[in-house]
Amino acid sequence: xxxxxxxxxxxxxxxxxxxxxxxxxxxxxxxxxxxxxxxxxxxxxxxxxxxxxxxxxxxxxxxxxxxxxxxxxxxxxxxxxxxxxxxxxxxxxxxxxxxxxxxxxxxxxxxxxxxxxxxxxxxxxxxxxxxxxxxxxxxxxxxxxxxxxxxxxxxxxxxxxxxxxxxxxxxxxxxxxxxxxxxxxxxxxxxxxxxxxxxxxxxxxxxxxxxxxxxxxxxxxxxxxxxxxxxxxxxxxxxxxxxxxxxxxxxxxxxxxxxxxxxxxxxxxxx
Length: 271
Ligand code: DGL
Known about the structure:
By secondary structure, the chain is α/β, with parallel strands linked by helices.
């Protein structure tokens, strides 16, 4: 039987950040990246819309021979993953699996014994309460402070992370959090990894930044070790294919920075 790939899905280019970390840790596997750049941002969409987009992405990736999908997006992980795993996968793709970014980030926070945790995320992730709920499940004693940052995804998608606008927005979002004396800050949106250096400067050394890219790569390695039935179905030719619903300059530019100048991205339709 032809071997499959690991699918990585995000609403746009934020997932590249996660994928980059995964590829550094697990370079031998084959991968398919899908960014729904025509419909980004998902962060202000309803649960119904995000669920519908997630089903379209899952169908596309599984039909393109993926054995396992990583939702490299908190918004999709928080709003669609559980329902998909419960209702859609068992009926349509009983042998395939989807993993998200929220549980790995939560486990990391717990393992590092953090007590006052800040979360920055899209409006939609904050409203879904997914990160908070999962943290409280592991340790109800952890204090959580959340901040929705609706301007950050458009800033990153536009490639404006080094602008004054980015500085201003970050200050505005992070200052209230610093007053709460947090000891960790979860970057609860995969796009925010591109702003990590700036965020670090604002929050200082005392606050540990939980970057999902690093954490997810480590957890995926462990998952594949524990699930040979999935791992055995993944090809090992280091092949990467990129798909997106719109060919944006920033996706190509960022993808090339991480994966080499010659990446080609194929435009597809999901709807
Ligand atoms: N990168 C995504 C996340 O982790 C979502 C960004 C968006 O589409 O709003 O939440």
